[in-house]
Write a structure and sequence with these properties.
Shape: globular
Number of strands: 3
Number of helices: 2
Strand content: 25-35%
Structural class: alpha+beta
Radius of gyration: 13 Å
Amino acid sequence: MKKPQAMRKWRIHIIRKKAQLLGTVEAPDADAAIKAAIKTFDVPVRDQRRLTAQPLEGRDAAAFSGDCDGCCAGACPRRAPA
């Protein structure tokens, strides 16, 4: 019997001239995170190949609330307290 994979938080970026943060999703692996991001953020078909997933680990994963849109360069007032 297969053991269920643990869910992790992933930071999703879209690559343009510079990477732009779309937000975070929870998924067991990077491929599943990108699929979840496509649904969550309504990414158009033409941009789906431009998505990247970066795992949030340690303090980042615990402190990141998941609803930051990157507008404040990491000093988000919507961030959960560490």
